[in-house]
Specification:
Radius of gyration: 18 Å
Order of helices and strands: EEEHEEEEEEHHEEHHEEHEE
Distance between the termini: 34 Å
Length: 299
């Protein structure tokens, strides 16, 4: 297995649990690795973060690219979804995909939305977050350095997922997911388990004065926690810490927020990274979460 030869470069875990790399063997003998959090490895919920390994795409999309919009062959991306679905114990027809614009819109999806973005056309745009209490739906968000966040309410049996780039983090999309789960499912934030997935680390994420100013305005008093001024217009930004602040401010207990120890930019052989690709063509990895079905499927 290709994953066996790749050593994961891990960051010192700031809080929560280390990601676990597991390998699923498909019926055709192919293998597909997934990164998972122990906190979300529990009865009633299925989740995983894909890597760039285990698919059939070629070139800069090699091999488990999950985006249709960057020039990869559609049939190869569909085969990648078939393999991913097998690893998650579901079907491609049950995925629901965002259409990300670095915003803060969150949508409650239901059985009627199954397959949108993979086997059916989406009827939405500008959507960076999803929530549901429908078992069998796979909520899907994508990144190649931005932060994917997964949400699980084991009490109300509801889940959420969002894509939090720097703009979404400034706009507090994580809090918007929590608010939507409160509105739609009567979720108590104190019951939520949240996982901040593989994404770019502080050491790799250099920004300019313009973006730093946005964070200084959005997170007053938290400057030393999320920013390091390298001077001459250069800063290092800690999106992981900023997302954590957003979630705790929304009422999620700090002990129930788990932050990745795997940086996309530090692991270009394992994960797609926009910065590691120097802005060139590349694929996307994804974060996925699904409520398990107790008896029958959703059709």
């Amino acid at each position: 297995m290709e994953a066996d030869r790749i050593k994961i470069r891990r960051k010192e875990a700031g809080a929560g649990e280390h990601l676990v790399l597991s390998v699923h063997q498909n019926p055709d003998g192919s293998e597909l690795p997934l990164l998972t959090f122990p906190a979300l490895t529990a009865p009633g919920v299925v989740h995983g973060f894909s890597t760039r390994l285990g698919g059939v795409s070629e070139g800069p999309f090699s091999s488990l690219n999950l985006t249709f919009s960057r020039g990869d062959e559609r049939e190869k991306v569909l085969e990648n979804y078939r393999r991913l679905a097998e690893a998650l114990g579901t079907l491609p027809e049950r995925f629901v995909l965002t259409r990300q614009v670095h915003g803060t819109n969150v949508l409650h999806v239901t059985k009627a939305d199954a397959g949108k973005g993979v086997t059916r056309e989406r009827d939405w745009d500008g959507l960076d977050g999803l929530v549901t209490d429908t078992p069998g739906l796979v909520l899907s968000v994508f990144s190649a350095d931005c932060v994917p966040i997964l949400f699980w309410d084991p009490v109300r049996r509801a889940i959420g997922a969002c894509h939090s780039g720097w703009r979404g983090t400034v706009g507090r999309i994580g809090a918007r997911v929590v608010e939507t789960m409160q509105e739609e499912f009567h979720t108590d934030p104190k019951n939520l388990i949240c996982c901040i997935g593989p994404s770019i680390c502080r050491d790799c994420y250099e920004i300019g004065d313009d973006v730093a100013e946005r964070f200084l305005e959005a997170f007053p008093g938290e400057e030393t926690r999320i920013l390091e001024n390298k001077h001459n217009g250069h800063w290092q930004l800690d999106l992981w810490a900023a997302c954590r602040i957003v979630l705790t401010e929304a009422g999620v207990p700090d002990a129930q927020i788990h932050t990745t120890d795997v940086c996309t930019c530090c692991n270009p052989e394992l994960l797609f990274s926009h910065r590691a690709a120097l802005g060139g063509t590349h694929g996307n990895i994804g974060g996925f979460i699904m409520l398990q079905e107790k008896e029958s499927g959703i059709g």
